[in-house]
Amino acid sequence: MIVVMRREAKPENIEAVVGRVKELGFRAHLSAGEERTIIGIIGDERHLNESVFRTMDGVERVVRVVKPFKLASRDFHPHDTIVAINGLSIGAKRIVIMAGPCAVESREQIMETALAVKEAGAHILRGGAFKPRSSPYSFQGLGYKGLELLAEVREETGLAIVTEAMAPAQVAAVGECADIIQIGARNMQNYNLLHAVGELGKPVLLKRGMMCTMEELLMSAEYILSHGNYRLMLCERGIRTFETYTRNTLDISAVPVLKQLTHLPVIVDPSHAAGDWQWVTPLSMGAVAAGADGLLIEVHPHPDKALSDGTQSLRPARFAQLVAKVRQVALAVGREV
Amino acid sequence: MIVVMRREAKPENIEAVVGRVKELGFRAHLSAGEERTIIGIIGDERHLNESVFRTMDGVERVVRVVKPFKLASRDFHPHDTIVAINGLSIGAKRIVIMAGPCAVESREQIMETALAVKEAGAHILRGGAFKPRSSPYSFQGLGYKGLELLAEVREETGLAIVTEAMAPAQVAAVGECADIIQIGARNMQNYNLLHAVGELGKPVLLKRGMMCTMEELLMSAEYILSHGNYRLMLCERGIRTFETYTRNTLDISAVPVLKQLTHLPVIVDPSHAAGDWQWVTPLSMGAVAAGADGLLIEVHPHPDKALSDGTQSLRPARFAQLVAKVRQVALAVGREV
Amino acid sequence: MIVVMRREAKPENIEAVVGRVKELGFRAHLSAGEERTIIGIIGDERHLNESVFRTMDGVERVVRVVKPFKLASRDFHPHDTIVAINGLSIGAKRIVIMAGPCAVESREQIMETALAVKEAGAHILRGGAFKPRSSPYSFQGLGYKGLELLAEVREETGLAIVTEAMAPAQVAAVGECADIIQIGARNMQNYNLLHAVGELGKPVLLKRGMMCTMEELLMSAEYILSHGNYRLMLCERGIRTFETYTRNTLDISAVPVLKQLTHLPVIVDPSHAAGDWQWVTPLSMGAVAAGADGLLIEVHPHPDKALSDGTQSLRPARFAQLVAKVRQVALAVGREV
Amino acid sequence: MIVVMRREAKPENIEAVVGRVKELGFRAHLSAGEERTIIGIIGDERHLNESVFRTMDGVERVVRVVKPFKLASRDFHPHDTIVAINGLSIGAKRIVIMAGPCAVESREQIMETALAVKEAGAHILRGGAFKPRSSPYSFQGLGYKGLELLAEVREETGLAIVTEAMAPAQVAAVGECADIIQIGARNMQNYNLLHAVGELGKPVLLKRGMMCTMEELLMSAEYILSHGNYRLMLCERGIRTFETYTRNTLDISAVPVLKQLTHLPVIVDPSHAAGDWQWVTPLSMGAVAAGADGLLIEVHPHPDKALSDGTQSLRPARFAQLVAKVRQVALAVGREV
């Protein structure tokens, strides 16, 4: 941590900062520049609260030097984490494709979709039983009944299941039915929920909040990792910007940046980012070319009858075309589907 | 709801949309323009899923005509809601000032702060027992012990208490100790939590998510109102933008816009928006001049020793100056403190 | 400037950075922390290009320590700049009110508006002759003819004039007619235009770009100041965010932050920020309470017939009410109108 | 255009709107819904100013139905525009690669870079003579001397040249030396400059402003097209968001969205978006996989000595690897380099 003193700081201000640094068990290193003095603090700054110094007289700014995440960082864990699920290795050579409807709506709907996406080449079935909806008047998911339907489909099709838990109290039940517990974008900083999935130890897909930086995503990952659960995947699903043609802006740069910062697999969800099925295929191709380890795609057999997010759902036939195109791109970058 | 057809839409596309409208129990009203046809749908669009139409052939765009919130809207509830707490009327002539530390840290710290803010003119004490922190390595609050301390302070000082609940399981305990349950910005769309505080019926302070629109804030309010809990206040606390001098950007326009859209009281939290105590006083004055019904201000007797958010905390003496200045502005706009 | 080395940086990487620092005529100051080494560079960093170091092996990050602006900074110019125009002192006790239509449309329209805003208490008339419009199909302003009309109105009413120059070639003509040359938000980083108004030496109102940081605004101010033109005012007019109820988001915090960073007067334009006349009065009151030195308000005698921006224009009677309310707030904060 | 009346609008308000519609030469089409009346306006809305209606009593909202751009739209020009330059066809099967330094710094530097990028497979040389820089203290480019150097390099290497014009007065000179005139992101809404390059008729590369929507980009394109200059390419170069790891956020979705909305070629500049050379190669691969027609890449033989933007510049050897990887992706999507 570096403390930048104001131009007009007095010697006693500098002494006070140095005194405080020592009091907290750290060492201080002064550097008197032409315009101002800077004070380097030596020790593990992750345990230092920067406002201690920012509130002192004569201090202009406090700069953190090291990244605030540790368990999620490649600095301390250089090799790629590979999450093994149901015979799949997420984060390895194969691009993993998770596909299915936004929400489980009925036995027929989820079974029809599961068979279709399996046939088209998907490895994992997605489908929400608990649905966070911005309106209380919208369909909120089938809840526990939806989990039962997912368990049935898993039994019959052999597909692994990824589905969302919205509250700590749902985590155990979701964990029994699902192979991967999804933490949705709106819950990325729901710390009680992060604790709960960290404790359970089952694989987790952590979606980036639409308002969250990559660093905050990694800090939320740190919550889960710090409970000893390393079976964790990150998911970029678009961030909120001023652009309105797409629902959110897919932050494709998050793929190479996260792959550099962290050892965790990076999945991309182009469906929620685009908000419109028409752009899902090119975005999927772009994501894989940029280095994504997997895709999360919304597919619905009858998008016009979907109870949620129909606009961004692909029909099974178009999804099959997507898989074929993504396969070509994967091969071009030394991966496979 | 209005369906805008594509320029090249065929007559059978238009017929299909009209057919679907009727099938869903609504009426359709066609308007053939020079370049394209638009179809007006007559009936309560809040129960219509727009993707039903967006996914149909020949459709370019679907536009909602009415606001998606109803209980929160002035259209159906024109008069100001006034929340009565402990002899105070929030939303009436008096500007209500809630002040206190970010977190309850100890009996001494919270009692010292309570006495100081009461002396300076605050009406309600704020202080977090459960703290959402982006880092698992930061102080997470005293939890239930913190609630006990708040209850003690309330007993001794007579100040009403506002404190945060982070999970449905904490709501009952928070409700026993607090006069107002705060829903934090990161939990604005934690629907299980909104259900829980809606059910409990105690007064709620709902903070706007830092990347949520006003409409989304009102939809989250709708969740609480739809459980019959009308003792609800909204709180603007800054939104996330590209500007970095301040921690977030206080959306001052939210004050007049929300006062026009909804009957609920609007509180402003300039401390979290600014992220630096130096700008809290002018922002408080600006908020009151623009029509805010109350302020939520961080005060700490020793900001440099605060376990969280020290940088944005005012010392009690400066807080007393803030109250004096805000009082002048309140009088100038026909209010009082 | 501080160079943060990577955790795995080798001694020769550190030596290379130090060597480069010396080669450029600066001094280096090493500080070996627990996890990594940081190198302080001593000398005037404004003349250092940070990519020199960011591209070297073993370097993780480069942090600037001093603000990049100098002439605009209070560090080197602590006292408030006061811009004297036509008997007015902008930046002093009196809140200066500039009002008028978005665009000059005809002799009748601009004269009628000028008389009305003068009567209501405005000090300066605004009105665009050259209009930047996002559509080539929209009214582009009367151009030089508009300047002539403004000159006539000035002659007849005695009001000072503020009007925009969009290109270097227009600067001389605008400078002849106007008391203040406005640089619009879209041109905040049109450096050729900044040079031109810097050279001319007439008072300048520099509007913040809708997606520019305060630091970038001050850097653009630096362009003008570096040509010796200190008769400069800054104008906050809303920034682009994800919120859509208002056209832009008025960054009210920019008022106290800029007043702290710079000695230049700060004007607020709530009309462009809000995009709707209904919110202009409360935002004006908020801006003055937060410390603004002046307001820039759109007024049109017949908003429904305005050729541009009618929605955000106040009718003269409402503008007169705004001035009365702003006057009360000004008195409450020790200013006057 | 659709006018949505307020819930409480009176019959005379509706009549007044209808009367105004007719007065302006359009036809009105009423649709009385359950909660409110909507009025469809029939005629070419591009010539209608929406504030005419927004300012009338009883009006809640005005919704545009058609896109505001026409010449840039596929609706009126369904086939891809192909820009022929120096034997290249931009917008056809071949992915066009433009590469070179941020700025022309010296004869040696630009010649060395030109030969290196040509050898690696680039088709066009980029290099700025006029440089928009946010600081007046930074290198501003060699100006006309830089144009001469570019002309020499073009003569010797046979590479086509793309370089920026910052002001109308520079357009003729830039047009003499360059094959493509670049309009930089900060000038996307510098309408005087757009007029000037529209008039000249030489090929133009129009960069999206970092604060501009796709619709605004297409409106700026419309300015150039409306002068009869159809030799126009669009360039996505990153937009400003809250994320700070990358300098800007590459809006990869702009590629498929723009390809659908417009017939103009779409080029991607990953160097300015990323702000760091490390992420340029994966972003280039992603852009081509998503459908981009070309790339604009910064290359410098000695990034640590570059006078601007060194951090994001690739060394020639790395650029050659980029071209090889992009070629593989291009083949996988049915294109070629």
Which short descriptors sum up this protein?
18% strand; 11 helices; elongated; four-stranded antiparallel sheet; 337 residues; eight-stranded parallel β-barrel; alpha/beta; homotetramer; 14 strands
Quickly describe the structure:
The structure is a homotetramer of 337-residue chains. By secondary structure, chain A is an alpha/beta fold. In chain A, 34% of the residues lie in helices and 18% in strands.
Mean pLDDT of chain A: 94
The dominant shape of chain A is elongated
Q: Which chain pair shows the most residues in contact?
A: A-B, 54 and 55 residues
Subunit arrangement of the protein = homotetramer
- Biggest sheet character of chain A: 8 strands, parallel, barrel
Q: How far is it from the N-terminal to the C-terminal residue of chain A, by CA?
A: 44 Å
Structural class of chain A: alpha/beta
Rg of chain A, rounded, reads 23 Å
Q: If you had to describe this structure to a student in words, what would you say it looks like?
A:
4 copies of one chain form a homotetramer. Chain A is α/β, with parallel strands linked by helices. Chain A contains 11 helices and 14 strands. In chain A, the strands form 3 sheets. Chain A has an 8-stranded parallel barrel, surrounded by 7 helices. In chain A, a hairpin with a 2-residue loop joins strand 5 and strand 6. The radius of gyration of chain A is 23 Å and the shape is elongated. The mean pLDDT of chain A is 94. Chains B and C meet through helix 8, helix 10 and helix 11 of B and helix 8, helix 10 and helix 11 of C.
